[in-house]
Design a protein that fits this description.
Elements (H helix, E strand, L loop, with lengths): L26 H10 L7 H8 L5 H6 L11 H11 L10 H21 L2 H4 L7 H9 L9 H24 L15 E4 L9 H7 L1 E5 L23 E3 L9 E3 L17 H6 L3 E2 L2
Helix pairs in contact: 5-8
């Protein structure tokens, strides 16, 4: 058996004590459960793959909504065709992942503007993705007198807005669109003194940018912004049969001195999902 928790609400309904008020959507928990519940024996390699997993369950539900829709521009239609054959992996090198994430962001913004009163939007930075997906999968009167048609209009509008964004960032050639580009999803660690330093010193103190995959809803949580601002910095896989076989990952290094070789020597390993022995 196994226990899985990934910031989702795991308190039984009716529990007598207030544990918290804010929970993450359950997608990371559901993906962990999907992998560990497969019934096969897991080894260290499998657990590394799970900790670094960037398969998007929300994408697996959202992309099929585009299946029978037609975009108004050739480039947006090409994007739909690219998403149809995508494997739902938010890999740094993936163009389809770039399209999906840009579309998801535009879609959440448009749904928020359509459904949330303007006076309340400031208190809600972003709609919960699980709520948005449930509205889109089963559109009701909130979408107006013709819910399916209005849902489809929002889907295409959001996709075309995403294509405009990607075109402005990377140019009109989709072959140059990569999710893990420094202009899109990356990680850069800024030293607290960064803003006060000369440019040459800042390059020594700051780390990155480095390409990142995943997002805030993948097991490997890399947050939903362009620059990763949250997620796991230290990860451990403990082998209870042979403790010295355990492995870990950490960033950025084990020294606070930028002149030390150990200031950044773990950053590259961490960003690439590579582990070191934990004796």
């Amino acid at each position: 058996g196994f226990i899985a928790t990934a910031n989702q609400d795991n308190v039984p309904e009716g529990y007598a004590h207030q544990v918290g008020y804010l929970w993450a959507d359950p997608f990371r928990f559901l993906r962990i459960t999907e992998v560990l519940g497969s019934g096969r024996t897991m080894d260290l390699s499998d657990m590394k793959n799970l900790q670094q997993d960037v398969l998007s369950l929300p994408a697996r539900r959202l992309v099929p909504l585009l299946k029978n829709l037609q975009a108004s521009t050739p480039l947006a239609q090409k994007a739909i065709e690219k998403l149809k054959v995508w494997d739902f992996l938010l890999s740094p090198q993936s163009g389809a992942a770039a399209i999906y994430v840009a579309w998801k962001r535009a879609l959440l913004d448009n749904l928020r503007d359509a459904f949330i009163p303007e006076t309340a939007r400031a208190a809600l930075a972003q709609l919960p993705l699980s709520k948005a997906i449930s509205w889109l999968e089963k559109p009701d009167s909130r979408f107006g007198p013709n819910p399916d048609a209005e849902r489809d209009r929002l889907l295409i509008l959001s996709l075309e807005q995403a294509i405009d964004l990607l075109t402005k960032r990377f140019g009109p050639d989709p072959a140059r669109w990569h999710y893990g580009d420094p202009n899109f999803h990356h990680v850069q660690l800024h030293h607290p003194l960064s803003g006060a330093l000369r440019e040459d010193l800042r390059r020594q103190f700051d780390l990155g940018p480095f390409p990142r995959g995943g997002d805030g809803e993948t097991v490997n949580n890399t947050s939903d912004g362009d620059n990763q601002t949250s997620g796991g910095s230290f990860k451990l896989i403990a082998d209870t049969e042979d403790w010295d076989n355990s492995i870990g990952i950490n960033t950025p290094g084990q020294s606070g001195d930028p002149a030390s070789p150990h200031y950044r020597d773990l950053f590259d390993l961490w960003a690439k999902g590579r582990y070191f022995p934990v004796a």
